[in-house]
Design brief:
single chain; mainly alpha; five-stranded mixed sheet; two-stranded antiparallel ribbon
């Protein structure tokens, strides 16, 4: 197969990336919204607390803190801290972290293209890059105020430098790959699934098998120990600052318990829709690419990568029922297979116009439509925040009606407690006793259980569409 891209291939890639960037104008200034609004609110709160309270890199602070400092465990804050640096330069604006997410996605696509070029050829790399850019799940999270696209960016950087190391035996590339994998895995440890395809590729391309095992052992020992150290540091922070765990590590050691139950396999193979990774529009091309790609020797790396992805999914699938961003780690090899199919089609003269139409019109439209329902408007966000600044002193602790934990406190830009259970005297009084001063509700208090009425003053404080009340401490 002709491996060099021609002018048609290059124009398709440039136009597709331009469309990808233009699509990001949508919602670029929006506050946390839509699907996983709670996760965006967590990240945005940490960024804002860096800006407002303490810029100590190692002290991430959440809002759902009660009387404590809010210092908590979390992902390694490369994304959050980069965002707050921009806050200090330009002032706080949701545009800035969203811009960083988009920049991370562009860099992820660049690392991916370079990696596929090393493994396959430049033509296939270009089409694989388009397949990744318009993967519905990649496209969606490239909009979000979340660190997961940066996790994938660092992961793909680790892949690129590792492949370069195998090709050149450069120690610089070896340690750059290790650094990028650490930066990725301290955001989400699922990226450690790369150990398996790395070992496979190193042994396949090494004349001395024993040396390759020793090399991989050093690589794993260094990267895993640093990642483990970061999460152990997080547990230490939680214990001394009375914070909640912000990561899934406590669930991993219990995964084997579920392996004998049918629901475990339903969760592993069915809870995350396969089409979200590659898109329904790309499915025929993916199947075609898989059939053709399997015959190529370098394809094994990607198939081993997919296997490794499912191995780590087995560790988290039993409890990660809404966390589809965990599955970003499996999207690049699927995109590489789709890209191989696209590159084969591009060589057929009769397919050039249909292929251009598909990649520049159909694919972006179908992928955008797939994720459109995941966005939402937050029309009262600024109104709520302005009213809170006027009517609730910033140092007063607030109880909010919020079953998702961080959303309402972030909208108010206040600290306190979310009341996740039904509002009643048993769920509210412990927080009042601990220092809660205001209660903020979605509806007038008369619509709630009567036993909490005596806990607040009669006069309502309107906070945009919300209803605030100053609490009365029970005797």
């Amino acid at each position: 197969m002709n491996s060099r891209p021609n002018q048609f291939d290059r124009l398709i890639l440039i136009a597709a990336i331009a469309i990808f960037i233009v699509l990001h104008i949508y919602h670029i200034n929006e506050p946390p919204n839509g699907y996983h609004q709670w996760r965006e609110s967590d990240t945005a709160a940490i960024i804002l607390n860096y800006y407002q309270e303490d810029a100590n890199f190692f002290h991430q602070r959440c809002n759902q803190r009660g009387i404590h400092s809010g210092i908590t465990a979390g992902e390694f804050p490369t994304y959050s801290y980069s965002s707050v640096i921009l806050y200090f330069i330009f002032g706080p604006n949701h545009f800035l972290p969203r811009l960083l997410t988009m920049a991370g996605s562009i860099l992820a696509l660049w690392f991916f293209k370079k990696s596929v070029t090393l493994l396959s050829n430049e033509r296939a790399a270009g089409y694989s890059t388009i397949a990744l850019a318009f993967s519905p799940i990649f496209l969606f999270y490239s909009f979000k105020i979340m660190p997961d696209i940066w996790m994938l960016m660092f992961m793909l950087g680790a892949v690129y430098f590792f492949l370069k190391y195998v090709a050149t035996n450069s120690g610089v590339d070896f340690w750059l790959s290790a650094l990028f994998l650490v930066l990725s895995a301290t955001i989400k440890p699922l990226s450690l699934c790369l150990y398996l395809p790395f070992l496979f590729y190193l042994r396949k391309n090494s004349e001395k098998k024993r040396t390759s095992i020793r090399t991989m052992a050093v690589y794993c020992a260094v990267t895993f120990s640093v990642v483990l150290g970061w999460f152990l540091y997080g547990l230490h922070l939680n214990s001394i600052h009375h914070s909640e765990a912000f990561y899934m590590g406590q669930h991993l050691i219990r995964s084997h318990i579920y392996a004998t139950e049918l629901f475990f396999y339903k969760m592993l193979f069915l809870q995350w829709p396969f089409e979200l990774w590659i898109g329904w529009a790309m499915l025929p091309v993916f199947i075609y690419g898989a059939v053709k790609f399997w015959k190529e020797s370098h394809s094994r790396f990607f198939f081993v990568w997919i296997l490794a992805g499912y191995i780590v999914f087995a560790l988290v699938s039993s409890h990660a029922r809404a966390h589809d961003y965990y599955t970003l780690v499996i999207v690049p090899p699927l995109a590489a297979i789709s890209g191989w199919g696209l590159s084969r089609l591009s060589l057929m003269q009769n397919w050039k116009i249909p292929l251009a139409t598909f990649l520049l019109l159909v694919l972006p439209a179908v992928s955008s439509y797939r994720i459109f329902s995941r966005f939402d408007d937050v029309p009262k966000f600024e109104e709520i925040r302005r009213a809170a600044n006027e009517k609730i002193p910033h140092d007063k602790l607030v109880l909010v009606e919020d079953k998702s934990t961080p959303i309402r406190l972030y909208q108010l830009n206040r600290h306190g407690w979310p009341v996740r259970d039904s509002l009643c005297i048993e769920s509210v009084c412990p927080f009042i006793d601990s220092g809660g001063v205001y209660l903020v509700l979605d509806n007038p208090i008369q619509t709630y259980n009567q036993d909490i009425w005596p806990l607040v003053k009669d006069s309502v404080i309107k906070i945009g569409p919300l209803y605030g009340y100053k609490v009365i401490r029970p005797d």
